[in-house]
Amino acid sequence: MLKELLNMMTISVTQLNEYAGRLIAGDEMLQGLLVEGELSNFKAHSSGHWYFTLKDAQSSVRCVMFRQYNRSVNFRPADGMKVIIGGGANLYLRDGAFQLYAQTMANAGLGMLYEKYEALKAKLAAEGLFDASHKKPLPRFPRRVGVITSPTGAVIRDIINVSTRRNPGVDILLVPCRVQGDGAAEEMVQALETLQSTDGIDVILIGRGGGSLEDLWAFNEEILARAVYACKIPVVSCVGHETDTTMVDYVADLRAPTPSAAAELAVPHVDGWRQTIDFLMESMAKQVEQALHIRESQLGLLRRSGPMVKLEMRIDQWTQQVKQLKRQTEQHAIQALDRQEQAWKSLVARTEALSPQHALKRGYAILRDQAGTLLTSKQQTKKNEPFTVIFADGTAQAVWKDTKEEGQCPQNSN
Asked: Are residues 377 and 347 both part of a single domain?
């Protein structure tokens, strides 16, 4: 038996591994794989390559993901995370170890969100919730704008700054609520109902800053999408960045790429009003001038016609009447322009007088608690409770130390 074995052709371990590797690499079933499993033993090597094990309840397989591939992964892998690996299988020659060479890695939970997103998008589109025919136009001259977002962060600051710059007379009403996490969609639905039951709201802005699909998921909830679609007041969405598109963006009457852009779309610039009035006045004056010119031309033709010579005196009378009418019309036009100018100046003065920014510049301040609620009474305050003081040129944080009845002065503790 030993003699027979010695007479057989022998191969080296390397040859064995190389042959097995060629078999695996040449098997199309083992290339272009999508394998789902749980990460374990994850290690990011100093070379930039990732080494880890992918496992399920019964089995595991060693994996490697070289740095030229893992650079495109938009999350940080960790042990216990469920992922979907794209790549092919091969044999590591040195150890003879079967392993998976990963080229892509996706969060398995994120994949489920994408599937849910696409399913809801198709459902709402089939029901016609995205149709342009249902979009309501924005009011030309809004007086009160409702905002649904977090009371902290850059979104509400950007909206207030842009609105104040464009038209300080427009009132901004914030309904603070959560914009991320469990229950956030329900809070925003309640905020929509609150604004619809509030008198004088002309347009609603709803949004938040950028984030991942999970961060923005509240704006993909069906309950919120249907509430925005059914809202009787025009809604402008400003969710995330321009590349982020949520269900609220699809059903809103208008989508803005940023909160600042939403404020610009909702609040027209006060200079635009002045330009519109000037244009209308100029157009009216031109129409009057053209009508008078036509009448004068007609009279000139009558004056030059032979059969009408005997009517020259009559024509002269008409000419005088036309000139008088022209003078009266010009006077009326000038008076109308003067009245419109005075009305405009009065409107601008009243608008600036009602501006909250105007009051702040006179030395007043606005107090809000941590939830963003306006403080108008000492009954709303608690000792040692922090609050925000809003001045004309910024904000400051303060803490309540004591309160006094009206007419009392605080005692000097020194």
From this structure: no
